[in-house]
Amino acid sequence: MGRRVIPHVPIRPLWRCRNCGAEWPCQPARLSLLVEYRGNRTGLLLYLGGLMAEAREQLAQLNPDHVPDLHHRFIAWARSATDGVTPRSGGAGRSRPEGALTVIRFCA
Ligand SMILES: [Zn+2]
């Protein structure tokens, strides 16, 4: 009753998730970012780049002796994550979502 949904957003300047307490961006935050920026990977990387700069500054003030690997945390996952639509060189026209066949077989 009246249970508030806490979004997976960063608490500044700690850069931990307000919902789950993990280092932000946590897994749910990454997923929702991928959905939000679907088809616009460049926009997502720009957005994350801005946040990474902000986080680096704030985390460095909190703990100058230990600045974590923010590039990996903020950028690398977004670069390597797939959209579900992976354009292949040569563009073979029909793209079938990977796993669809498996699911069908599984249900049959
Ligand atoms: Zn979270």
Biggest sheet strand order reads 1-2
The structure class reads mainly alpha
Major pleated sheet = 2 strands, antiparallel
Radius of gyration equals: 18 Å
Question: How would you describe the overall organization of this protein?
Answer:
It is a single chain. Strands 1-2 form a two-stranded antiparallel ribbon. 47% of the residues lie in helices and 4% in strands. Residues 90-96 and 98-108 have low confidence and may be disordered. α2 (41-62) packs antiparallel against α3 (70-80). A hairpin with a 4-residue loop joins β1 (10-11) and β2. The chain has 4 helices and 2 strands; from the N terminus they run ββαααα. The protein has helices at 27-36, 41-62, 70-80, 100-107, and strands at residues 10-11, 16-17. Zinc ion is lined by residues 8, 17, 19-20, 22, 26, 28-29.
Keyword list:
mainly alpha, binds zinc ion, disordered C terminus, two-stranded antiparallel sheet, 108 residues
What can be said about this structure in brief?
This protein has 4 helices and 2 strands; from the N terminus they run ββαααα. The chain has helices at 27-36, 41-62, 70-80, 100-107, and strands at residues 10-11, 16-17.
